[in-house]
Amino acid sequence: MRNLKFEFDLFFISEAFLNEHQHNLINTLVVPKEEFKKNSSLSNVVNNSTYQTWNLTYDFVIVAEPGWYECLNDDLRNEIKLEMINNGLELIHHNHLVTAHYWEQLNIDEQQAFIHQFDDEFSTTDIQDFHQYPHLTKLHNTFPNEHGANCLSATLYALTKNPFILEQWVHQETFMLFLNRLGYKEVESSFNRGDIICFYHDDILTHACYAIDDEYVFNKQGQTFWEPWTIERYETIQSKRDEVNYKIYKKLKVE
Question: In Å, how far are 68, 151, 178, 221 from 199, measured between CA atoms?
Answer without folding.
Answer: 43, 11, 17, 12
